[in-house]
Design brief:
CATH architecture of the largest domain: 3-Layer(aba) Sandwich
CATH superfamily of the largest domain: HAD superfamily/HAD-like
Number of strands: 6
Helix content: 40-55%
Strand content: 5-15%
Bound molecules: 6-O-phosphono-beta-D-glucopyranose, magnesium ion
Number of domains: 2
Number of helices: 8
Order of helices and strands: EHHHHHEHEHEHEE
């Protein structure tokens, strides 16, 4: 690894909680009669809960008040947390575990940079509650991706400059956030083909060849 530190996005990079976000939003959208599918769901990757709701409501004919929106976001979060509650360390994919262990053995500092306010809970569920050297998440920021705030916060906690760090992202908004913050980026999953990323990963362990 030629970078001095790695900052990982969480949902869709470390674990498949991106799928649970989709399922929870889908239940809500169906209840409200709003068209929503996996393609539209890709627009929600990396963006905050409230901004995600706004994107979903763009397809609604009904206008919602701020109080109604807050209640809908809370309803989605409850559905999502029920799914998270079933997660165990077995939900940490083998390839991810192997990659994290190899980077740790190399002495590479590692952080999480996620827009999610559920980050501490998820890390706990999958057995990574104490693994990372730093965690920057949705509870610590005011602007979500594509703003670089969460990655800058993670780099600051690691005491590394952005140009020393590699960001790993599955969200197009996250790839853009890395670019704006002056970070190199390895894109995976939905963002894999994004030309703004320097590296394109089939699987997380491809990081070990960089
Ligand atoms: C990001 C996800 O990690 O977290 C987004 O990619 C999600 O889809 C965002 O909206 C906020 O998550 P939470 O857990 O705070 O609702
Ligand atoms: Mg993600």
């Amino acid at each position: 690894m030629k970078y001095g530190a790695v900052i990982f996005d969480l949902d869709g990079v470390i674990c498949s909680t991106d799928e649970y976000h989709y399922r929870a939003w889908k239940v809500l959208a169906d209840r409200l009669g709003i068209p929503f599918d996996r393609e539209r769901n890709n627009l929600l990757r990396g963006v905050s809960r409230m901004e995600s709701l706004e994107i979903i409501l763009e397809k609604s004919e009904k206008r919602y008040t701020q109080a109604e929106k807050e209640s809908l976001a809370a309803e989605k979060n409850e559905l999502y947390r029920q799914l998270l509650g079933n997660m165990t360390p077995a939900d940490l994919p083998e390839d991810v575990k192997r990659t994290l262990d190899a980077l740790r053995a190399e002495g590479i500092p590692m952080a999480i940079g996620s827009s999610s306010k559920n980050t501490p809970y998820i890390l706990e569920r999958i057995g990574l509650g104490h693994f990372f050297d730093a965690v920057a998440d949705g509870n610590m920021i005011t602007r979500s991706k594509p703003d670089p705030e969460v990655f800058l916060k993670a780099a600051e906690l690691l005491r590394r400059a952005p140009e020393e760090c590699l960001v790993v992202e599955d969200a197009r908004a996250g790839v853009e956030a890395a670019r704006r913050g002056g970070f190199a980026c390895a894109a995976i999953g939905d963002a894999k083909g994004d030309p703004r990323a320097q590296y394109h990963l089939e699987k997380l362990s491809d990081l070990l060849n960089l």
